[in-house]
């Protein structure tokens, strides 16, 4: 298991001190590997605690990035990796805005967390992303409703590098057992849909800067 923090890499991620908790996580890796769909355990900063091979396979074509690799911190990957849109379909509307909504809730709950504050500063350093966070996100939630930001049960598009899946959808399923929840972790599984959508002729272009391009207009 790799315990690596998001933000400035490399930095040691705190490992549960209890031997029982460490043994539980080791066995949980075995459980994750038995799951055919991408599955990942995250902490409250979206640092990846453990993940399975299906998760690694989904993002296997991602280029290197100093702080936003999907196996390190999933929130940073969604927001800041320039290749994220080549796998996360409808990247801004279906992935960025919901993740920004979850991030806003986490900042409200863990306001003094250094890792979350580092991400907040990075958002603030880009005018377009800052506008999306402060203005576009509230407008999006008003228009789409709170359910649009829900994590468990959300259906989101993917462009899987494996041609057996190709352009498809996944349902995000929160299947966190009580033991993981007590550790402050969340387990998410991306259940790939059997019914595939028609693959677009051109995959999402790689962006030179990993920032939102469109901010929904605020109401006047």
What does this structure look like?
The protein has 220 residues and is an alpha+beta fold. It has one domain (19-192): Beta-Lactamase, CATH 3.30.450. The chain is built from 7 helices and 5 strands; from the N terminus they run H-E-E-H-H-H-H-H-E-E-H-E. Strands 2-1-5-4-3 form a 5-stranded antiparallel beta sheet.
Question: Can you lay out the helices and strands and say which pair or pack?
Answer:
Elements: H1 19-33, E1 39-42, E2 48-51, H2 53-58, H3 74-80, H4 91-109, H5 114-124, H6 127-144, E3 155-159, E4 167-174, H7 178-182, E5 186-192
Antiparallel strand pairs: 1-2, 1-5, 3-4, 4-5
Helix pairs in contact: 4-6
End-to-end separation: 50 Å
Main sheet makeup: 5 strands, antiparallel
**Top CATH class:** Alpha Beta
Q: Spatial order of the strands in the main sheet?
A: 2-1-5-4-3
Average pLDDT, rounded to a whole number, is: 84
Overall, the morphology is globular
Low-confidence stretches: 1-12, 200-205, 207-211, 214-220
Q: Helix-strand pattern, N to C?
A: HEEHHHHHEEHE
CATH architecture call: 2-Layer Sandwich
CA gyration radius, whole angstroms: 17 Å
Number of helices: 7
**Percentage of β-strand residues:** 5-15%
- Strand-pairing-aware structural class: alpha+beta
* Integer count of domains: 1
The overall strand count is 5
Helix content: 25-40%
* CATH fold naming: Beta-Lactamase
């Amino acid at each position: 298991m790799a315990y690596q923090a998001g933000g400035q890499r490399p930095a040691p991620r705190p490992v549960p001190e209890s031997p029982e908790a460490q043994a539980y996580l080791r066995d949980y890796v075995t459980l994750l590997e038995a799951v055919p769909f991408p599955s990942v355990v995250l902490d409250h900063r979206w640092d990846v605690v453990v993940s399975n091979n299906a998760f690694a396979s989904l993002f296997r074509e991602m280029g290197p990035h100093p702080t936003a690799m999907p196996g390190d911190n999933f929130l940073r990957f969604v927001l800041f990796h320039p290749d994220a849109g080549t796998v996360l379909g409808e990247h801004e509307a279906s992935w960025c805005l919901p993740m920004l909504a979850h991030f806003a809730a986490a900042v409200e709950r863990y306001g003094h967390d250094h890792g979350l504050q580092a991400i907040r500063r990075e958002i603030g350093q880009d005018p377009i992303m800052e506008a999306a966070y402060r203005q576009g996100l509230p407008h999006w939630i008003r228009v789409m409703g709170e359910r649009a930001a829900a994590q468990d049960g959300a259906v989101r598009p993917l462009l899987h590098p494996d041609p057996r899946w190709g352009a498809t959808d996944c349902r995000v399923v929160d299947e966190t057992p009580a033991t993981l929840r007590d550790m402050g972790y969340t387990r998410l599984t991306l259940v790939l849909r059997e019914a595939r959508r028609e693959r677009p002729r051109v995959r999402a272009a790689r962006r030179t800067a990993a920032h939102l391009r469109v901010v929904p207009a605020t109401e006047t």
